Amino acid sequence: MFINLNVIACTRLVLVFLESSLRQAFVMPRQGGSEYLFLSLQVLNRNDIDAVDRYNHKYLFLFFGFLAISTAFYGYFHDPIHCWTPAQFPSGWVNYTKTICWITNTRYVPMDETDIDQAPKRDIIYYQWVPLLFALQALMFTIPANFWSAINGSIGINMHKIVKLCGDIEYLGERHQDIRYIAKLFNRVLLYTKIIKPNTRCGRLRYMLAKVACFWGKRHGNYLVIVYLLVKLLYIGNVVLQLYLLNQVLGTDYWLYGAEALYDVVKTGTHQESYRFPRVALCDFDIRSLGNKIHKYTVQCLLHINVFNERIFIVVWFCLIVIGLANVLTTISWMWMLFATDRRRFLKRSLIESELYDQHNDKIKLTEFSNKYLRMDGYFILQMVEKNTKDVVANEIIERLWVQRPHPYESTERRDV
């Protein structure tokens, strides 16, 4: 069986990458001079995100990691290339030909081209690096989630633990006591990011701009919202960057690859062989013999690994397009929810169900509760709780916050002197 060093090296790099990723996911930093293992993946199992984010940084990470391992092992355990060599080549020369044609580039010339020397040169440079390419893509899908996690920790608000604790309420015995504890924790977070009440003109202008998210900061009640929308844009940019990367590495118009494959299936009933992943290519190499003579050879090689790559990259194209559209739609949805809708409707619905809201006497109180107490970040956390748990949990937290809200709200504000 033909085994080449390049594929072995790729396999080892892929395994090292996945080992380091899993080590980071399972092993916590030292606390008290000891290390302990998580029972679940810390990095992949986050609760402070929506479903589309989870598909980005968890399922697509696992998907591309699987592709990296499978393509590496396919090249390791199978002959990735076969070459039609001259009859005078002994077996050692045949193996040498396969090796040099694998580690160097081949070129694609259509079979109907009569003059191969004058034919347009289209080098095939990607097939050796496909496992590493998939490993890189898997890593890229984790970058926005890691950025979001780092920002959460930098301001002292661990949304992951807050939302996880809300989700665990369903399985805990002392439900009402746990709701009170979460509401107290929630209140502490809101007071930690209390409003800066300005006395200067510049401060008052900044205060007004912060209400419409034109100015943001840890003390303006909109920090988490702006950062999360930035993370959403990172997810969109990640998909665009990956499409551009594949287009450059494959050396083809990969932007339309999946659409063209779908068109072929609809038109002809079968998928036609693509010039992007040719099964037959030409390999040019030189051999130095005694007397310092250079012999040039051109052999025809069968890249049957491209049968595998062709199907995989069709699936990859559709995955990137679908997740890219989902990222755009959810970003628009979050922006509409946070900026265009009335936050009071969401709060009023929960308070009316619990009979804590008086339609005639509590309108001003509800406005102050939404704009001065919860603000955009508090509303955002409640929305994230509702998306990752049951509606009743978010409703009970809102009810408890309403009951224990401070009076007056101005007492929670800090003056900027």
Keywords:
disordered C terminus, single chain, 8% strand, mainly alpha, two-stranded antiparallel ribbon, 3-stranded antiparallel sheet, disordered N terminus, 417 residues, 14 helices
Description:
With 417 residues, the protein is mainly α. The protein is built from 14 helices and 7 strands. The strands form 3 sheets. The chain has a 3-stranded antiparallel beta sheet with strand order 1-6-5. A two-stranded antiparallel ribbon has the order 2-3. The longest helix has 36 residues, at 305-340. It starts with a helix and ends with a strand. Residues 1-9, 20-41 and 410-417 have low confidence and may be disordered.
Low-confidence stretches: 1-9, 20-41, 410-417
- By secondary-structure content and strand pairing, the structural class works out as mainly alpha
User: How far apart are the termini?
Assistant: 78 Å
On the 0 to 100 scale, the average pLDDT is 75
Counted by DSSP, the helix tally is 14
Radius of gyration: 29 Å
With strands numbered from the N-terminus, the spatial order across the biggest sheet is 1-6-5
β-strand amount: 5-15%
What would the principal axes of the Cα set say about the shape? elongated
Give the ordered list of helices and strands. HHEHEEHHHHEHHHEEHHHHE
Helix percent reads 55-70%
| Largest sheet features | 3 strands, antiparallel
How many beta-strand runs?
7
